[in-house]
């Protein structure tokens, strides 16, 4: 796909563009799509994660399309599959739809097994566009920060929230770091590595 962010400051400087009404529309659309969804094991509205991912994208030089995709990156996976993808395409265009698609590990109502989905997601990253990787890195960084914060508060019970459990979740995030680092070195990848390393350190100290 054509990637308008390929020649952007990705991430060496913050974008100076102004956000338009499209971003406002995406924020409302995402809030409504995820209105009844909470963060795993918490009472935190799911939109908090979407806002955080979009913020990280913008702080790292992302375009408006990339920020909109960050708001909608879980919409296909969690809120309607291919029907939602086509609604995103209609509202926000092919580029946003392609980024969201690249950040989704399934568009099926009955999803494949967790490990298979994650392996396939990791395998596609080297061929993914710069835009997909930026949004993915922002998504995974915020998730990892949340895991670290929750683990400090709740300890081993934190892993009960995740289908992969402790072993699978640690494998997934370390695999993401290693895959991203083979592709490129960016401030987001380095920060993700630091957060995941701290999670691993705390987890290894738990008896």
Question: What this model shows, in words?
Answer:
This protein is mostly helical and 207 residues long. It has a single domain (21-204), classed as Hypothetical protein af1432 (Orthogonal Bundle). 64% of the residues lie in helices and 0% in strands. The chain is built from ten helices and no strands. Helix 3 (64-71) crosses helix 8 (130-154) and helix 9 (165-183) runs antiparallel to helix 10 (187-204). The longest helix is centred in the C-terminal third of the chain and has 25 residues, at 130-154. It is globular, with a radius of gyration of 16 Å.
Structural class: mainly alpha
Domains (count) = 1
- What is the number of E strands? 0
Mean pLDDT rating:
88
CATH superfamily: Hypothetical protein af1432
Oligomer: single chain
**Strand percent estimate:** under 5%
CATH architecture: Orthogonal Bundle
Query: Sheet with the most strands?
Result: none
Radius of gyration: 16 Å
CATH fold-level topology: Hypothetical protein af1432
Can you write the helix and strand succession as a string?
A: HHHHHHHHHH
Q: Outline the low-pLDDT stretches.
A: 1-16
CATH class: Mainly Alpha
Q: Give the helix tally.
A: 10
Instruction: Using the alpha-carbon principal axes, give the shape.
Output: globular
């Amino acid at each position: 796909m054509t990637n308008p962010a390929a020649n952007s400051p990705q991430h060496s400087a913050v974008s100076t563009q102004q956000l338009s009404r499209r971003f406002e529309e995406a924020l409302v659309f995402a809030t409504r799509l995820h209105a009844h969804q909470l963060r795993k094991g918490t009472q935190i509205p799911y939109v908090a994660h979407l806002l955080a991912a979009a913020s990280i994208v913008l702080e790292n030089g992302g375009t408006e399309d990339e920020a909109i995709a960050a708001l909608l990156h879980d919409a296909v996976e969690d809120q309607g599959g291919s029907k939602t993808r086509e609604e995103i395409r209609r509202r926000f265009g092919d580029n946003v739809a392609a980024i969201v698609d690249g950040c989704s590990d399934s568009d099926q109502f009955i999803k494949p097994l967790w490990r298979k989905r994650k392996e396939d997601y990791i395998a596609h990253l080297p061929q993914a566009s710069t835009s997909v990787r930026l949004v993915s890195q922002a998504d995974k960084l915020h998730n990892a920060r949340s895991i670290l914060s929750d683990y400090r508060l709740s300890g081993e019970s934190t892993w009960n929230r995740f289908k992969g459990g402790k072993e699978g979740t640690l494998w997934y995030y370390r695999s993401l770091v290693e895959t991203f680092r083979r592709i490129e070195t960016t401030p987001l990848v380095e920060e993700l590595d630091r957060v995941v390393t701290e999670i691993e350190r705390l987890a290894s100290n738990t008896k």
